[in-house]
Amino acid sequence: MTATSATPRPSVPLITVLGASGFIGSAVTAALARRDIRLRAVARGRSTVPLSRGARVEIRTADLTDRDALAAAVEGSDAVIHLLLCSGGWRAAEEDPGSERVNVGVMRDLVDVLRNRPGGQPPPLVLYSGAASQVGVPPERPLDGTERDAPETAYDRQKLAAERALLAATAEGVVRGISLRLPTVFGQPAVPGVSDRGVVSAMVRRALGGQELTMWHDGTVRRDLVHIDDVASAFLSALDHPEELIGGHWPIGAGRGDPLGDVFRTIAQAVSERTGAPPVPVVSVPPPAHAPVTDFRSVTINSSKFRAATGWRPRVSIHNGVVRTVGDMAGPPSPSPV
Asked: Is-contact 38 56, C-beta < 8 A?
């Protein structure tokens, strides 16, 4: 299914987003829609792309585990942004044998498809959404991309396998690959029907429901939290400044390392101010048996090399990001009684 405006000029680049209807995919697609490009948004479900005077938009629905459908989806692309992920995240990777087909198999198929492009076409740029957690148990110092990878979970092993397939193809000259290793991303994309399943949004839902916010530790564990708008901006910055990035993996982060206890209390206060109810309690509880060891280690990310190469920097503070997320999830304020 397509929705295309006027016939595009051949000189206008074609950017294809795989996984365009997902949490990160919808935000990246919305940001790209403001540009003077040809934009092809591809996902299993129908993608929603905000109306804009920028891009000429084509929307496709496709099962990208079907090799022929994948080949058709990326045909003629100058750049491909691979944001496809098996639904259910890290837990699905542990429990669903089919997750590897999505998380790894599609990347391997993509490399093969692009290897067989017609002669004379330059290798396309391929941006991949890796994960900072691919390193496994993080060191005490900030992550800067020089760490040895020792993934602890099936999800991170799959993400690493896909990244290695991309970078091996880059070394062969098949593609020009870049992996952005993402931190804990939070926020709500400005696209109806798309929601975040991450820790910040989960706690906002609990607070809006009047439930206490629970931690599996004492609240001093830190996470490098980056708002979804800043993550979308990082992908666009990589598109604009690829040459220094090609062939590498680049950790993306705010560099703050926010203590989760402070973040949860900010959520409780923001929800209180929005609803008028008292702030819900923030409490420590025993961890479940399935909690990975990485959940109890702090993560701070040093993305100075990526910033120097692209000029990117995060702009949304943790406080403003939480307030925005609460506002988006709570909906319009109730009218004051007359």
From this structure: yes
Mean of all residue pLDDT scores within the chain:
90
Q: What is the model's pLDDT at position 177?
A: 98
| pLDDT tens per residue, range 142-155 | 999 999 999 999 99
The tally of CA atoms less than 13 A away on the side-chain side of residue 208 is 16
- Which is nearest to 158 in space by CA: 197, 129, 185? 129
Distance of alpha carbon 203 from the chain centroid: 19
* Residue type present at position 310: T
Tokens of 236: 């666009």
Inter-residue contact 62 to 21 (CB < 8 Å): no
Do 299 and 223 contact (CB within 8 A), yes or no?
A: yes
Return the half-sphere exposure (C-beta side, CA atoms, 13 A cut-off) of residue 102. Answer: 21
Q: Where are the beta strands (DSSP E) in 157-270?
A: 176-182, 184-186, 213-215, 222-223, 225-227, 249-251, 258-259
Domain ranges, ordered by start, for the chain: 14-186+228-251
Instruction: Give the tens place of pLDDT for each residue, 177-221.
Output: 999 999 999 998 767 677 777 899 999 999 999 999 999 989 999
> Which fold is adopted by the domain 14-186+228-251?
Rossmann fold (3.40.50)
Residues 6+ apart with CB under 8 A from 308: none
First CA to last CA distance, the chain:
49
The model's pTM is: 0.91
Dihedral through CA 45, CA 51, CA 55, CA 58, nearest 10?
Answer: 30
Contact of 84 with 38, CB cutoff 8 Å: no
Amino acid, single-letter form, for residue 279: P
